[in-house]
Amino acid sequence: MAEETWFDSYVRVRYQETDQMGVVYHANYLVWFEVGRTELIRQLGFSYQRFEGLGFMLPVTEAHASYKKAARYDDELIIRTKIARLEGVRLVFAYEIIRQNDGELLASGETHHIWTSLSLKPVRLERQQPELYAMLKQYES
Amino acid sequence: MAEETWFDSYVRVRYQETDQMGVVYHANYLVWFEVGRTELIRQLGFSYQRFEGLGFMLPVTEAHASYKKAARYDDELIIRTKIARLEGVRLVFAYEIIRQNDGELLASGETHHIWTSLSLKPVRLERQQPELYAMLKQYES
Amino acid sequence: MAEETWFDSYVRVRYQETDQMGVVYHANYLVWFEVGRTELIRQLGFSYQRFEGLGFMLPVTEAHASYKKAARYDDELIIRTKIARLEGVRLVFAYEIIRQNDGELLASGETHHIWTSLSLKPVRLERQQPELYAMLKQYES
Amino acid sequence: MAEETWFDSYVRVRYQETDQMGVVYHANYLVWFEVGRTELIRQLGFSYQRFEGLGFMLPVTEAHASYKKAARYDDELIIRTKIARLEGVRLVFAYEIIRQNDGELLASGETHHIWTSLSLKPVRLERQQPELYAMLKQYES
Question: What is the complex's ipTM, to 2 decimals?
Answer without folding.
Answer: 0.94
